[in-house]
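Q: I have two molecules that I believe assemble together. Could you output structure tokens for the complex as a whole instead of separate predictions?
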Amino acid sequence: MSATTIQPPYLLFVGDARDALAAKTAAGILHWRREWCLGQVVWPDCGAELDLPGMNVAEAAAAGGRTLIVGVANAGGVIPESWVTSLTEALRAGLDVASGLHDRLDAIPALREAAAATGRRLIDVRHPTRSFGVGTGEPRSGRRLLTVGTDCSVGKMYASLALVEEMQRRGLDATFRATGQTGIFIAGDGVSVDAVVADFISGATEWLSPASDPEHWDVIEGQGSLFHPSFAGVSLGLLHGAQPDVLVMCHEPTRTHMRGLPNRGLPGLAECIAANLEAAKLTSPAVRCIGVAVNTRALAADAAERYLRDTAAELGLPCVDPVRTGVAPLVDRIDR
Amino acid sequence: MSATTIQPPYLLFVGDARDALAAKTAAGILHWRREWCLGQVVWPDCGAELDLPGMNVAEAAAAGGRTLIVGVANAGGVIPESWVTSLTEALRAGLDVASGLHDRLDAIPALREAAAATGRRLIDVRHPTRSFGVGTGEPRSGRRLLTVGTDCSVGKMYASLALVEEMQRRGLDATFRATGQTGIFIAGDGVSVDAVVADFISGATEWLSPASDPEHWDVIEGQGSLFHPSFAGVSLGLLHGAQPDVLVMCHEPTRTHMRGLPNRGLPGLAECIAANLEAAKLTSPAVRCIGVAVNTRALAADAAERYLRDTAAELGLPCVDPVRTGVAPLVDRIDR
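A: Yes, here they are, computed for all two components at once.
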């Protein structure tokens, strides 16, 4: 799809990641695309360890590896000096290097020179390499599901991928459409929608999910929340550009405030569903919400079960945890 | 405010503008900042003429001019080859050159070299030169008015400037905050909000309208419409970042479809006001709408008068045309 399709197989660079959270990009790729992952580069002082063989760049290249993925994040999204030698060696070994960090690989002279000398690519998935038209809101063929959320980082990507897996298992024709860094590594392409110029949010989303076969489903990864004052503009443009036939609301029930904003509580689920449906109607008048995907990891099993049951009764909608229960009850609502 | 404050007095470059519409940036600057405008550069084949003396760059510099403003727009926002000599001469005469077009002045080698050689500045107001933090939605001191609209290009900038003028006439402390190209030339600074990276729409707006004296009014120029599927994300981020105490809804009553989208009608005024208030409450719980500013230029005087009267009765809000009636009834609602 994009000019910067990322080629598997991957070598996952975990480097000196402090802990498992710092390596969550790598962990997400491994979880959803184990068949694409050859090995990991882990340094002795690393606080994270993936269930993958340790491997150097030469070994990865010899095993058919195509791309080293920077699978570790840090505050500020910087590329520390200490990584540059490893990344340069990857280019010299014949791998592309891809990163989703804020800092650009191609802003580092040593990497730029090594890429030019070897003919390999530096892929900064956070920074769109193409321009987009403005969105039109015109109807297009195909069916679309968008995950939305009460907040950022409540499991929209995970829910989207679980839905695609379940849909494909039932023989539905479904494609995951990635809008964030980790999702792009998992899909192999996509658009980091929060990084496009503001005028083109809905246009980039329309481009990401073009007209398709009438029975085909695009499952589009949502971003942010209409109720997050930092990012609601992104969420609304994505909602309008996606033209979703159906929404799945994603939620984390133990969160006490909106991510990054200690003074701001989360919206109620019913209120958040209603606001998303109302806004989505602008470009998709028949939109409906088919249920809620809850990340109950912080709850004990019985509390999670009770939460899902009570919430389903309250909303009159299926409520699932993609990890604990799977998403079959959601797919039941579209698989007719 | 910004790193790229534009210095008056201005020389307005109209060049070969086809017609008055193509020169509307220059006309807007002249209307609101006549005292900053020394003269115009108009070529023989120009289809637009401002009420200003013709002047060359040397004359403008001798008269104390500081900046040549590209006051003409064209489809695509390109800077044609034919303008480059004139713009280079302006730099050599000692003027800065400022443009709000999509094409960047500083992407043209001849201009870049002339700017470096003369120490003058190339100012591309459409392209933010600084980065912004993400918005927080935290309350900040000072009072804020935001103009919103049923569509793009319905007179939000004009209404905002008319409101500031009326507020200042009554001794209120009020500042115009520009969010679009023409507005930035009129204010001398501002942020082209639709051109920032999507993640930072509300953050850029918070930066544009910082905490101020509790009685001070910022009058913030709105962009787009919550009901325009191309640009609603920008409008929502602007609404959240502005944290408006009051909204003024702007409307053009003869428009048959949303700008640029022939198949899409405009929202009703009551529906559009309700949706904007509902969305604005996220960061400004006590927000209220103080009235409607209607651009009735396309109506005859009696039809305009009837439209304003009927709409005011229907909505229970003052309805004015900033040009025909002035905005006093709106300012009455805050001047207490």
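A: One point stands out. Chain B has two domains: 10-124, 143-332.
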